[in-house]
Hints:
The chain is mostly helical.
Amino acid sequence: xxxxxxxxxxxxxxxxxxxxxxxxxxxxxxxxxxxxxxxxxxxxxxxxxxxxxxxxxxxxxxxxxxxxxxxxxxxxxxxxxxxxxxxxxxxxxxxxxxxxxxxxxxxxxxxxxxxxxxxxxxxxxxxxxxxxxxxxxxxxxxxxxxxxxxxxxxxxxxxxxxxxxxxxxxxxxxxxxxxxxxxxxxxxxxxxxxxxxxxxxxxxxxxxxxxxxxxxxxxxxxxxxxxxxxxxxxxxxxxxxxxxxxxxxxxxxxxxxxxxxxxxx
Length: 265
């Protein structure tokens, strides 16, 4: 395949794709319907023209018929007056008129037949145009409904061009937000470790930063010791109390007595 043929093929393919993307079936149907209406109008105009010609021939036939009757009357009168020569002349003219009359009758029959055919064709075309109009409106309504449903589904699924742009904008915003959050966390860690200096709050040397960390660790250890003490106290069983049988006074248990003796010694 030559270069020019390839270029021509590529151009035709791209043009066809672009035209297919631009084509709206509803507009195409309306245009086709308009073309059919124009054709129907032409057929009706043709019927009117043929009918006009037929009427003109009919008028000419009526005039020739009157003229023929007139020449026949003249021949009769001339023959009654003894003018056979005039009667013969009148009859010759009558014959010529009759010849014209026969030709007009042939034309009239042809025009009448043509008018009938065009009338039938116009009626059939009118039926087809009416049927096409009904189908056209049905197809347009169906296409419009399908187009609306497709746009709704695309909007819900997010694959339409508008929703895709919105989705991309949201994605970019989320990515930038995550990036800023990560950057802020990294800067906080660097400030806390001393790798970066806080130029706004004032300079902090490494010794002071280490002291701050020690204080923080000491506070944490104290809090942990307090929590351990609370857990140990909650886990110890309560001390038993024995009642004195004689006077009803409570006396310490054996463990308590042992503890008191140890304190006395």
